[in-house]
Design a protein that fits this description.
Layout lengths: L1 E2 L2 E13 L3 E11 L3 E5 L6 H8 L7 E6 L2 E2 L5 H7 E4 L10 H5 L1 H5 L6 H10 L16 H13 L5 E5 L7 H18 L2 E6 L2 H7 L2 E6 L2 E7 H6 L4 H7 L6 H4 L2
Helix pairs in contact: 5-6
């Protein structure tokens, strides 16, 4: 139950997902407590679908996902999604105040969040206390993404799933959110799975990386070492921008 001396937080064992076609095919990996894992791959590789399977937004066709050794299907869905928080590509916020959004998860669990706690959560994501009373519809996209982070952090998750959280942001906001994610990881030691198709972003995180292609694990390891390897022709195609996913080929 240990990875390099650290307790395994998440174990993904031979999971498959089939819709109109195979989305995921026998994907396996492990995530240690406090680890950042980057999921990299072309569009249509199955990255977002994989995240959705981890907190049961999508139901597996085969295989298992274990959280702390327990099959995730054994958890009540609200508890699972509290422990495995998902940040979407576009912030999923209700049209109300920042505080109302930050309080959503705890209120579902029957808890109230004070102004002081809300302000503390906002401070963690780099927003001033006065944001508590602002309507989210007045915020920039980058600010909304930070509110979405605070919303998930309010649940005190064991694992953060981040689905291309910077893909819709401008270059300056991208670096701000990347720095924020790194800072949160350093302070909270929360395990994270970060989805991206951006090689430069993956290199900046410089973490253990899983490369997906057409729903399968193409390679696993440190991103810089993977890019230096010439042992896998498909991997070389991906790094050179010459790989087409099944989605792009229309199959």
């Amino acid at each position: 139950m240990f990875i390099g001396g650290c307790l395994k937080m998440l174990t993904v064992a031979n999971i498959s997902l089939v819709k109109e076609k195979h989305i995921l095919k026998n994907v396996s990996f492990e995530l240690a407590c406090g680890e950042i894992l980057v999921l990299l791959g072309p569009s249509g590789a199955g990255k977002t679908s994989l995240l959705r399977c981890l907190n049961r937004l999508d139901s597996l066709d085969s295989g298992n996902v274990f959280l702390d050794g327990t099959d995730t299907r054994a958890f009540p869905i609200t508890e699972l999604r509290r422990r495995i928080g998902l940040i979407f590509q576009a912030p999923a916020l209700i049209p109300d105040t920042v505080k109302k959004n930050v309080c959503v998860g705890p209120r579902l669990a029957g808890k109230n969040i004070s102004d002081e706690v809300c302000q503390s959560l906002l401070s963690r994501v780099g927003l001033e206390s006065e944001y508590c009373g602002r309507n989210v519809e007045t915020l920039s996209l980058g600010e909304r993404q930070r509110v979405a982070l605070a919303q998930v952090l309010a649940n005190e998750p064991d694992i953060l799933l981040l689905d291309e959280p910077t893909s819709a942001l401008d270059p300056t906001a991208i670096l701000v959110v990347e720095t924020l994610i790194q800072s949160l990881h350093n302070k909270l030691n929360t395990a994270m799975v970060l989805v991206t198709h951006n090689l430069e972003q993956a290199k900046r995180f410089n973490a253990r990386t899983l490369v997906l292609a057409d729903g399968e694990v193409l390679a696993e390891g440190n991103i810089c070492k993977l890019m230096e390897s010439n042992a896998n022709p498909k991997l070389i195609q991906f790094f050179e921008g010459r790989m087409e996913s099944n989605e792009l080929k229309g199959s």
